[in-house]
Task: structure prediction
Amino acid sequence: MKVLKFGGTSVGLPQRMHHVAQLVTADKESKVVVLSAVSGTTNALVEIGELLLKGNKSGATKKIDTLYDKYLDFYKELLSEEESLFKGKEIIDTHFGFIRYLLDSSFSEWKEKELLAQGELLSTKLFYTYLKEIGIKAVLLPALDFMYIDEDGEPDVEYIREKLHERLADNKGNQIFVTQGFICKNAEGLIDNLKRGGSDYSASLIGAALQADEVQIWTDISGMHNNDPRIVEDTFPIAELSFEEAAELAYFGAKILHPSSILPTQKYNVPVHLLNTMQPQAKGTLISSKQNPGAIKAVAAKDGIIAIKIKSSRMLLAYGFLRKIFEIFEKYKTPIDMITTSEVAVSLTIDDDSQLGAILDELKEFGTVQVDEELSIVCIVGDFVSEKKGIIEKVIHSMNDIPLRMVSFGGSKNNISLLIETEKKREALLSLNKGLFHK
Ligand code: ASP
Ligand code: MG
Result:
């Protein structure tokens, strides 16, 4: 069994959906096909939700009409036989009927989640109708029947496994199962979702639950690149990554994969293959448990970083100081990314500044606090365990002319992080490209 996930752009036009149908029927293997909403849909639904929360009915109606028209064009190009055209129109009218019904009901956070779920429900139902039209036998598996998050918002893989096996057993003899990414039920039995970009996560959870042979994530680029293609010209797709390296890269800027989506597949050791819908022959990136000691794989950067330095003579020879500082960040639910310490100071970085004021007020009780903004973390990802020397020298040497605000090495064997001014990011990525990937 394989799990194939297609993102919003891969199903963003009727012709692309036709192409996805070709890809999923190219062999006779059993597969679960996970689809995102047609590109632009979730954004539009978010905007409609925001307007409704503000009580702006006419604004919301306008947006709903525009989206509806888009779908009317879409299904007419997707489908061609009378019976399926009828079905397609019915699907669209049902879901837009629901969206319009929300206009007249009192709108709440939970209604908003139901609103957001319409995108994936539409894309999968339309795709399924197309498969039927071209004579492909498939089953539409409602994600809301098996995708479940607990009280803490965490997916429950065991529950998902049990429910999925039941559904598959009900549909024995079938090869293609189509389901929605992103959407789920929560502990209260209400419709919820796995957060923006969450379809990757859905695919990974399904792959883990079924112990699939492989999870394929189909997007519009050929895998993860070794550097930022918007800045560096000669980037190339990385053929293989370990789960740990992929997780670092997903977090530090490679937008291709939802950062949480590595975890379930890693835990159940299911390889993840990143592939390109527009270039199905390209090798893409294969993420697995295979290690490649000593290799430098990629450079990535994350902007919007804030550095906080706390300096205090009370830290000298004291214990428990770091705990007190961390507790403040914990209290304000703000994750810390990088950290370095000296005997009398701690520097750390965050990327969520929503609680910054309150955090600083409490930190000031410990000593002098300095804050720097508009910083970027540049990280070098690879497998540095067997490297006795060499890599860090190469990295620092490449960064010769760029002031380094913090350096973190040894936190994990897969990452070297450098904190620099965002203004210098371009130069840093270019220099590292030259120093690390060109002999
Ligand atoms: N449709 C959702 C979004 O746009 C989920 C996804 O595409 O992964 O965020
Ligand atoms: Mg995505």
The two ends are 42 Å apart (CA to CA). DSSP finds 13 helices and 16 strands in the chain.
